[in-house]
Structure formats: C-alpha cells, structure tokens
Amino acid sequence: QVQLVESGGGSVQAGGSLNVSCAVSGPGVTSCRWDIWWYRQAPGKERESVSFISYDGGTSWYENGVKGRFTASPDNAAKTMYLQMNSLTPEDTAMYYCKVAARGRTCSLHGSEYWGQGAQVTVAS
Question: Is 76 left (phi over 0), alpha (psi -120 to 50) or beta?
Fold first, then answer.
C-alpha cells in the first residue's frame, strides 16, 4: 500500500524558518514522478492551497501570501518532497498537508493521488 508520511514542522518565533517533508513509499512508487501540492488549514478556517510544483519542475505556483518566503522542491530520487518556509509570521500557523499525484508513462500508479497526515506549524509573535 502506498503511503505518504509527513515530518517536520514544529514551533518557531516570528521571522524564523521551518520545513516540512513528505516521503512516499510502497509498491510501484519507484517508477513514478510526482506532482506536489501543499495545503494548510488554520483553526476555524477552510483548507487552502499554498503551493504546487509539477513532477518535472516546469510549472510552479505559490499563493500570494507565501510567495518569496516558501519554496517547494521534490527529490524524485529520494521520493521525498520538501516545503521550506522562511520569514514565518503568526498568520502561517496551521496544519500543513502535502498531496501528490503519480505521473509517468511507466508508472503503474499514474493518476493516483495520496495525502499526507499533516504536520503542525506554530509561529509565535
């Protein structure tokens, strides 16, 4: 069974940095590359998308509020996806989730999507 396990996050003072990573594992993942979305959900708010990067890195998108501060990057060889977050503010406090979609002509999982379990990021003022 394919799994997407998140790690990282934590607590930091405003202006600090944190990162979150997602590692995909399971049968069939070796032959796949991955489209990656990062979402976040603050208490009492709806889940919102903050970043997208395509499997080949050719397309990327960041929500205006994080542009220039957050960087998403895949390590296809390690089957791990990273979200580096700099210059954090209390408004960035949320549970952060990754979602991936399998891509590739030889990828038996092509089109399948998987969610991470979430990682808490807390920024103190």
Answer: alpha
Residue 24 · residue 2 · CB < 8 Å: yes
Report phi then psi at 91, rounded to 5. Answer: -70, -15
Q: How far apart are CA 22 and CA 112, in angstroms?
A: 16
Q: Which two structure tokens, joined as six digits, stand for 58? A: 């050719």
- To the nearest whole percent, how much of the chain has pLDDT over 70? 100
**Bridge partners, 98 (sequence order):** 38
If one compares 77 and 39, the residue with the highest pLDDT of the two is 39
Structure-token pair, residue 8: 């990282």
Q: pLDDT tens digits, residue range 60-115?
A: 999 999 999 999 988 877 789 999 999 999 999 999 999 999 999 999 999 999 99
Residue entry with tokens 């979602």: 99
Q: What whole-number distance in Å separates Cα of residue 124 and Cα of residue 48? A: 21
Distance between CA atoms of 13 and 125, rounded to whole angstroms? 6
Structure tokens at 74: 């895949």
